[in-house]
Amino acid sequence: MARIVFTQQLRRFTAAPELQAPAATLRAALDAAFAANPRLRGYVLDDQGHLRANVVAFVDGRRCRDRVQLDDALRPDSEVYVMQALSGG
Amino acid sequence: MQRRHDHDRAWVATRKGLFELRRRGAAWAIERSSFLGEPVSMMLAPPSANATDSDSPRLYAALNLGHFGVKLHGSDDGGQTWQELATPAYPPQPDGEPVAGVAWKLVQIWSLAAASGVVWAGTLPGGLFRSDDRGASWRLVESLWNQPGRAQWFGGGYDVPGIHSICVHPARPDELLVGISCGGAWQTRDGGASWTLAAHGMRAAYMPPDQSGDPNIQDPHLIARCAGAPDVLWCQHHNGIFRSTDGAASWHEITGAPDTSFGFAVAVHPGDPQTAWFAPALADEKRVPVGGALAVHRTRDGGRSFEQLRDGLPQRDCYDLVYRHGLAVAPSGDALMMGSTTGHLWASDDGGDSWQTVAANLPPIAAVRYG
Q1: Is A88 in Cβ contact with B69 (below 8 Å)?
Q2: B278-291 burial by CB neighbour count: b if 16+ within 10 A, else e?
């Protein structure tokens, strides 16, 4: 089960608890989180389902490769961190 | 619920939150802050006359979170508590787009209006949205978004075009005019089913000469309609002041403003189509008050002459700029409020003849609203 952790900054706005999900890709992991809290989706992804310009996702310590497809592969023990990028101010 | 006079409460949307102001006798005081720390790009306090069936008309506040996108909140208890509503969202972008490089992604809610149970949201990058359920759901007005002319729009002040003005017709709710930087003005008379360009007569000094009269690329910084004479509209344009007396079928330039006709804001007297106020600034690259002295320009004769109003406004070392939504006139037409990018807020009870400082250390002010 991949582990998905969201920046605590999101808690000011909506629930974003840590969760475990049997996800094979970054997008599947995010979808699992959005299933638990649909409102979270709009905070992480934009209108087109792309990672927001000022949000960054790390997979096992590396920044995700693709912000559009979000198809970075996850291992069963992967850790995903969704953080706010400092570019956003 | 006790009926409150529209001009006894005001709202200031800033880079760091929404501030509610109440009139206490002759003076205004900050009553409450909401969303402290978050950028509030626009707020809407619908006038009582436009309230839906609710006793307390819903208030709307548009946030522009630096990391997490645009959000919309509503309050049904006069601003004491807020709930997140649905956010307008652009539909999936077809292959082959974007037109003119514009991604179908919401950048900012730049304008809000309510009339006859419909809430309208004007956005960057140029889409108009409508909600028929007080913000529970939104849909893009595709008839405007799909105009072929949209490919010629471009950003003015932002990287992408945006709708900053939504002028509803007070007697004909299906008639709506929107102002776009930079996409001219567009009007519908059938509730948004069809649109016509409504910026004929405007002039764009920033374009090549043969394109300066193209209504589709004009940069109206703000368009305001006179509530009591809805066929009269005033426009503070990027390179001048324009006025229409025929419901935006045509515009003519007003050239008599002293010192400068550059600025962003315009406010129109709700009952007198001859009277309007402007917040001038030195054109175009500097955008500061002329001579470091802040003035409001007022005309009371339809633009034939202007007065410079300075009493109570800083007259030296002043570099405050008033953004397009930073000048508001109360429904009475006597009271005005004006806020600057430097966080100064002034109020006038005598039509701009004199001003009092309400606050001097607010965050940069995006919008001022009565209601």
Answers
A1: no
A2: bbbbbbeeeeebbe
